[in-house]
Amino acid sequence: MAKKPSSKLTKRQQEVYDLISELIHRRGYGPTVREIADEFNIASPNGVVCHLNALVRKGLIRRDANKARAIELTGQPATLPNDKDVRQRGLLFAGVVSAGFTNHAFELDERVDFDQMFHGQNLFVLRVKGDSMIEAHIADGDFVICRSCRTAEKGEMVVALNDENEATLKYWHPERNRIRLQPANSSMAPIYVKRATVRGVVVGVVRNRV
Asked: Is 33 in contact with 45 (CB distance < 8 Å)?
């Protein structure tokens, strides 16, 4: 059953907000203007921008107009959760993150129940693929718990996306004219990119050992 729009939102503003919220919680990042336009058959990108600006003014989202996917929830819900939402357990399982870049992250719609160790609306889980972080005691098949965010301190372990929306798990080292994504494996070279976007900072590891 579709959510009823909040009294302070128009029907279309509520629909756009619901789409943003769903995608952020399901895959870890929000939609582009084009994705919103395609979802609701809005002919002009300006029409989408008007709805986004209204949501910003009403305090429901934050947006960086210079970045395609830089839409964040403020944490203030547009509608109250229903009973099913309240009862849902576990953290969002966002997919698999590779030792190198991969397009497999942020695609799955499952949940992993680590509630006794971690909980929070802004957390998600990724399963690690590869051994680039082995010297940080993170091996193939382990799970990393990430706090969803767009910024990181130098040296923090992050999930980062490149311009092709490929994800990798590495240490974050911005440099003068590039970003160094440093593996924790002395046999592997760093990855250097001109641009990359932080999608989450690692806050915990759950080891998957047989």
From this structure: yes
With beta carbons less than 8 A apart as the criterion, state whether 142 and 128 touch: yes
Fold (CATH) for 89-206: Umud Fragment, subunit A (2.10.109)
Sole residue written with tokens 């993150």: 97
- Which residues form the catalytic set? 132, 170
Q: What is the pLDDT of residues 132-175, one digit of tens each?
A: 999 999 999 888 888 888 889 999 999 998 887 788 999 999 99
d(CA 147, CA 159): 10
Cα(2)–Cα(34) distance, integer angstroms: 23
The architecture in CATH of the region 11-73 reads: Orthogonal Bundle (1.10)
Question: Could you give the angle at the alpha carbon of 59 between the alpha carbons of 54 and 61, nearest 5°?
Answer: 75
Where in the chain are the domains? 11-73, 89-206
pTM: 0.49
CA distance 98 to 95: 10
